[in-house]
Amino acid sequence: MGRIYNFSAGPSMLPEEVLRQAAEEMMDYGGSGMSVMEMSHRSKVFEDILERARNILRSVMGIPDSYDVLFLQGGATLQFAMVPANLLTGSGKADYVLTGNFSVNAYKEALLFGGKEINVAGSTKDENFTRIPRQDELTLTPGADYMHICANNTVFGTKWQYIPDSGSAPLVADMSSCLLSEPVDVSKYGIIYAGAQKNVAPAGLTIAIIRKDLLADPLPGTPSMMNYAKLAGKGSLYNTPPAWQIYIAMLVFELIENKGGLEAMRERNVHKAKILYDYLDSTDFYVAPVVREDRSLMNVVFRTRDAELDAKFVSESAGAGMTNLKGHRSVGGMRASIYNAMPTAGVKHLVEFMKEFERVNG
Q1: In angstroms, how far is CA 91 from the centroid of its own chain?
Q2: What is the C-alpha separation between 302 and 249, in angstroms, rounded?
Q3: Which of helix, strand or coil describes residue 102?
Q4: Which of 95, 136, 224, 240 has minimal CB crowding within 10 Å?
Q5: How big is the chain by its Cα radius of gyration, in Å?
Q6: How much is the pLDDT for 362?
Q7: Which CATH number is correct for 5-16+260-361, 3.40.120.10, 3.90.1150.10, 3.40.190.10, 3.40.50.300?
């Protein structure tokens, strides 16, 4: 069997160019005589990989010098706890905007910090998270230590199309499923974090971009491995880092840079998403529940009007050279995750399958 179109929400497809280069360098990276998976993280050759990855990411995203870039472990889920552990050190108050399951999980994690005031600044739960709250719907807490959002909601297929005004509180954003898909004004955020397994690298790496004035003493009792300042002080080498994932991330950063940067990524992703959304808007056979102005470019959710047909769709799509189109267990239906590495041909192949499935089952 050849390569298939993998529409998984994560771990997702990786660029074929990156996979080929990694395969070529698997046994011997850069004349070192060993794989990146074997070399010491304290060696000069790996430190060069780490520094190159950091520098190219800074260049591609336009990260100001006033921010530090950390390569961490634990996934975005660990960041749900690390953010409050490091930032709830002033008023002890924080605002969370709930737009899907991961923002809800982050909120629940913050609630575990006893004696703190964790507020819901906005939520679209009553609308089944089919849209993003408007700025005038947000209720900000005076003096909050930060406000947290999930920039792109993988399960529900929505995305913040604007950067919310968080007042004097630093804005913290989980960008796990949209990082590197389009340009970002990093200066508008206090912290950006992302699990790498969507647009960047294999699972096991987390990227955190942190404004340096926020690298301060965390709450008492915070473990060293959750202390941003300590991790930054060691240059992401406090312990053995996920070396292979950082290497793959470096290759992905290089590829993005060589293909025109994030403006080119956005143009390509808008084009891919339009192909799929245009078809969904042209038919009554499929339902696309997300409010149009809040649609994600990365995760397109849809369904038929019959759960049995949805199951049939998922089953038959596998036989047509596609996989992982089943929607998240909490919402059902289908979900096509069309991250950077998904080629336009894959989206067109999906649409042609959808048309034929409608013809036969409509």
Answers
A1: 29
A2: 31
A3: helix
A4: 136
A5: 21
A6: 82
A7: 3.90.1150.10
